[in-house]
Amino acid sequence: MRWESGAFTRIYAGPGPVWSPAVRGWLFAVHEGRRLRIADDEQGTSWWMTATEAEREAKEREREAKEREREAKERERGAKEREREAKEEALARVAELEAELARRSRGG
Asked: For the whole model, what pTM was predicted?
């Protein structure tokens, strides 16, 4: 605990985490006691992200969003290509049928 004078007083010592009402989270000494991590739960399964972790996660979400956008555009491009091919096949079939009708109308 930090006093108004700036001095610290140990209010907890032990193997497990301690609840901090100041941050409303569980405090864990990690990396051989050289670092402090905070979690939402006493088991330490829901860690608070560090600034670096939050930045990395934001970049990963952005990368994933761009990848989903790229995949959607690729699917759209594929659908348009299939539509174009179907249209060309239909036009070719219409041309064949028109040619057949022309031959039959000429008596052939």
From this structure: 0.52
Mean pLDDT of 4-26: 84
Residue 36, strand partner residues: 29
- Render pLDDT for 55-80 as a digit per residue (tens, 0 to 9): 999 999 999 999 999 999 999 999 99
Question: How far is the C-alpha of 108 from the C-alpha of 104, rounded, in Å?
Answer: 5
Rg of the Cα trace of the chain? Answer: 34
Q: Closest Cα to residue 39, out of 17, 21, 62?
A: 17
Helix extents (H) in the chain: 51-105
- Give the number of other CB atoms < 10 A from CB of residue 17: 19
The 35-39 sheet, strands edge to edge: 18-20, 25-30, 35-39
Encoded amino acid at 10, one letter = R
Question: What residue segments make up the domains of the chain, in order of their start?
Answer: 1-48, 49-108
